[in-house]
Amino acid sequence: MSRRRGTRISTQLQNSRAPSGGWRSPRNKKQCQSESKTHKNEVEAEDQGKEIKEMAPRASCQTMCPAQELRNRESQNRLHCFEVVPGTESFRKPKGDPLRAVKEYSRPAAGKDVTKPSCLRPPDVLLKTVCYLIDEIAGSTSLHPWTEVYSFVFDRLRSVKQDMIIQRLSGKDCVAILEPTVRFHIYASYRLCGEPLRIYDPRINDTHLQEYLSWLFDCYKTGSGPYPNQEEFQTLGLLYNLGSSPATQDILELPERLRQTPSLKLALAINRAFLEGNHVHLLRLVQKLDFLQACALHRHLVTCRRHLLLIYCHGYHSRNCRFPLDRLAQLLSLEPSLTAELCQVYGIEVNQHNQVLFSKSAFTEPEQGSLDCKLYHSIVSEKQRGLTVKSIIHGCT
Amino acid sequence: MAHITINQYLQQINQAIENHEGSFCAELLSFKHPHVANPRLQSQVAREKCQQILEPPYDEMVAAHLRCTYAVANHDFVEAYKFQTLVVQYPFFRAFQSHKEENWALPVMSAVTLDLRIFANNAEQQLQKKGKGQPGEMLEKAAEQLMSCFRVCASDNRAGIDDSKKWGMMFLSNQLFKIYFKINKLHLCKPLIRAIDSSNLKNEYSPAQKVTYKYYVGRKAMFDSDFKTAEELLSFAFDRCHRSSQKNKRMILIYLLPVKMLLGHMPTHQLLRKYDLIQFADVTKAVSEGNLLLLNEALSKHETFFIRCGIFLILEKLKIITYRNLFKKVYLLLKTHQLPLDAFLVALRMMQVEDVDIDEVQCLLANLIYMGHIKGYISHQHQKLVVSKQNPFPPLSSVS
């Protein structure tokens, strides 16, 4: 009896760590009897010391895109413009470039056999694929617009993840692939902030990023290490999930020597300031972050600034309140003109002498779409200075 | 029981099943019972006899149970878990579901699900030691099975109260809570809480079950920052927990104390000593005196303990209360309603709060005003905090 394998999407586990083996046997009462027998055989096999890995599908595809898929997509005219031989883009059927084609993500479906060895890429090829995507696509200075670049890389990385799951990769192989993937998504969350929803959805980026982070942290926890970048990524994870109790608790449960590293200490201090509502202190600490760390934190800047304005509306509420705009600008790490704009968005009056009139009743939530986060990005963008996208994602800053 | 023959054992089970003797049947399938140490029951022959003497699906269930006893005897909990799964997942579950309008099997359900969770725990620990397996993976699978049983219980609408399977709901909830807390997936508790809350049996379960239930729901409320609810639930659990269960009372107290402190109620030293919770003594002292320095020291001294219990983050929230108490002292000392901001800065510097300046003082004060801990306003021009002449520092319990 052959045991059918198929992915089962369990709603209960949707938010769980990324599965390293997302394969469950289908619940089929008829097969249960015989299944429990084969189950027992499997159990006995494990008893004899055989690792689960030996039963994982083999991978033999040595190119970024399996040959069969390249042929299929070429004949169906479904190649991405980044994958075609230069010069053939305008042909009726553009020619696929085997050096530039990358296996695309495809939804698992009944009857589709994703375990064919010729279609699966082994770990070394996966790593080469990721490097190609970063160096030649994400890090390219000639490919435009970056939203298009993002879509392509996002999808192809998703396919890499699929191959990893099917082969039940774990440990150092996984980590080497996940780390640049996480950096890419964090950078993207900053770079594409403010793009229209139909081109870029921050929530989708977030969902995938959280899964990658979760999986990466699991690898750190269960693997034998050493993982020299663990400090960097635990820091990025905490900054990205600022103020989250589960994220904070996870960091607190790390070994002492990790928690005492400078970047993690800084992230914890920022997290603490966030939870205490001390955003003045927080924004000051943010000055010490590097570019990618600031990218990770950036989506919380709106919350921080909003909260500061809110508590100041309450704290300074009086008829004679005249708070200097310049001072507020310094506290918010913004230019005075932008500070005045921000106040306006929240309904706070700034008079012609550049004084802010804080008042409890004035504070209003901004209308949908009136707050353009991108305008207030200077605190992050000034850290980018001479860095290239390639070096950011490879972590060589 | 440790010397019973296989025939006797199987006959007893068969009888218990036929006579619907739930409790007795449960004992014969529970790992708390001495029969599990009986080597005669652990042989291949014993398993084959199951098919001869018992009706399906009980034959498979008991056979799996016996294989499990063999695994446990060899201290192989990974195996034990696998076989306990075979007990629960198919045979028991099917039988349980097929019992229309009767609930005699509830004790059996309790016994086998409890063992399932315990083995999942042990199995994970064994795997971790060998560096294999995802943390939480086995417990999640166990939870899935418990959830199926829970659904069977919760959807039992037809039977009368006495025969209803709904009586099993709280026990299963408590088991599931233990798993969800262990694997840190608290959000999965919500549907269980909702189901129990809307059930008419809510207050009829046994005191022991209710204490456990309120303990976990109280902890969840803490996690959701709903401190008033948390206080109610945890106080109930603490008060009703049996005097003799010192360990449990201590566990409840570990979570009740931070909540009470956030609401302004400090524990007595006597209480802390009685339950061996001196770790909280310095924290308590620091908070009531407004002593930030002592608070930071106390938190870092017992950091490991607080983190392990998962209360470190909540205790950090006490910092805000401590700032409030410190600032109140400043107010009481200066005896005026117009307090220079410098005075607060001096107070903070005395507490060795590092690199704090006037801007941060203003932020802290603004936050306390916003939260309702101080009634007043800051005048930037005069660099003063102007407080209300009436009750400028309202009591902590009155501020949400």
From TrEMBL, chain A:
This is SAC3 domain containing 1. One of its GO terms (biological process) is centrosome duplication. Gene3D superfamilies: 1.25.40.990. Residues 64-352 form the SAC3/GANP/THP3 conserved domain. It holds the Pfam family SAC3_GANP. Residues 36-53 have a biased composition (Basic and acidic residues). GO terms for cellular component: centrosome; nucleus; spindle. Residues 1-53 are annotated as: Disordered. It comes from the Eukaryota. Residues 8-18 have a biased composition (Polar residues).
Automatic annotation (TrEMBL), chain B:
GO terms for cellular component: transcription export complex 2. It comes from the Eukaryota. InterPro entries: Csn12-like, PCI_dom, WH-like_DNA-bd_sf. Coiled coil: none annotated. GO terms for molecular function: double-stranded DNA binding; RNA binding. One of its GO terms (biological process) is post-transcriptional tethering of RNA polymerase II gene DNA at nuclear periphery. Residues 211-392 form the PCI domain. Belongs to the CSN12 family. This is PCI domain-containing protein 2. It comes from Poecilia formosa (Amazon molly).
